[in-house]
Amino acid sequence: MASTASNILFDDIFAINAIDKEGIKFDRVSRLYAHSKNYEMDLTVDYNTELFPLAVDQSFALALASSLSRGGIDGAEDAADDKDRDVWRPDGKGRRGLEEDYDYVMYGKVYKFDGGTAEIVTAYASFGGLLMSLTGSFRHMTNIVLGDPVYILLRK
User: Which of 155, 138, 66, 70 is nearest to 109 (CA)?
Assistant: First the structure.
């Protein structure tokens, strides 16, 4: 699935360090703190605990994607498939997007990018009020662009 890779902006496996249920203004929402296994990244993300229950010391896969489409975004899709970018909507054709491979998906926007030090940066995204921050080496976040829409996909 080489063409899928062009839609994936970032992916890694994270281990949960802590989950904070206090101080969150929404019912059934918690904030988790996790550290990635491959890229030494730190993640903070708000998520719905009823839809996607998690526990401290549990690991999960996270991907950030520019589209749920399985086709590439840089010309790999033909014009006929262009109308099917919202693949999560049933179209009667049996098309399945990246969401089929994950347990929990949210759609949002990258609203802030903090330069931090020369090497370490933080990307911030909002998913309808549920917030995410991803901190680590800029080398692993070169595809994440300020102002761009983004999907977060989680899988146990």
Answer: 66
Q: Whole-prediction pTM value?
A: 0.82
Q: What is the largest CA-CA distance in the chain?
A: 49
In a domain, 51, yes or no: yes
- For the cut 70, the answer to whether the pLDDT of residue 69 exceeds it is yes
- Using alpha carbons, select from 100, 144, 101, 151 the residue that is nearest to residue 9: 144
Provide mean pLDDT across the span 69-73.
69
Q: Alpha-carbon distance 74 to 54, whole Å? A: 35
Full residue range of the structural domain in which residue 38 is found: 8-68+97-148
Give me 152's structure tokens: 């977060």
Q: Is the alpha carbon torsion for 105, 111, 116, 118 positive or negative? A: positive
